[in-house]
Amino acid sequence: MQKHLGQLSVGEKAIITGFVEGQKEYRSKLLAMGLTKGIELELTRVAPLGDPLEISIRGFSLSLRKEEASVVLVEKD
Questions:
Q1: Burial letters for 23-58: b for 16+ Cβ neighbours within 10 Å, e otherwise?
Q2: Residue 20 belongs to domain spanning
Q3: Is 4 exposed, middle or buried (0-12, 13-18, 19+ CB in 10 A)?
Q4: Are 73 and 8 in contact (CB under 8 A)?
Q5: By three-state DSSP, how is residue 7 classified?
């Protein structure tokens, strides 16, 4: 089942399946940070107020705003 990255719970792992249509401004930025189709990630932390999120991907930690995370489509592992 496809979800947005922001809908995962802390500790859940998922695989990136694509991006939401019509969000080109975020898509190129996210691709440059290494968020490409088929890559596994894990949601490691969420700030107390829910923004930003921290994910573990490709051996490093990356923080994303909730708005940016909502553009990334994932499928639970």
A1: eeebbeebeeeebeeeeebbbbebeeeeebbebebe
A2: 2-76
A3: middle
A4: no
A5: helix
**Number of domains making up the chain:** 1
Token pair, residue 39, equals: 């890559």
Spatial neighbors of 68 by CB under 8 A, at least 6 apart, are 26, 29, 30
Of residues 34, 37, 29, 77, the one with CA closest to residue 57: 34
At 47, the pLDDT band (50, 70, 90 cuts) reads very high
The CATH number assigned to the domain holding 56 equals: 2.30.30.90
Average pLDDT rounded to a whole number, residues 40-45: 94
The two tokens of residue 49 are: 């107020």
Check residue 27 and give its pLDDT: 84
For range 39-68, the mean pLDDT? 91
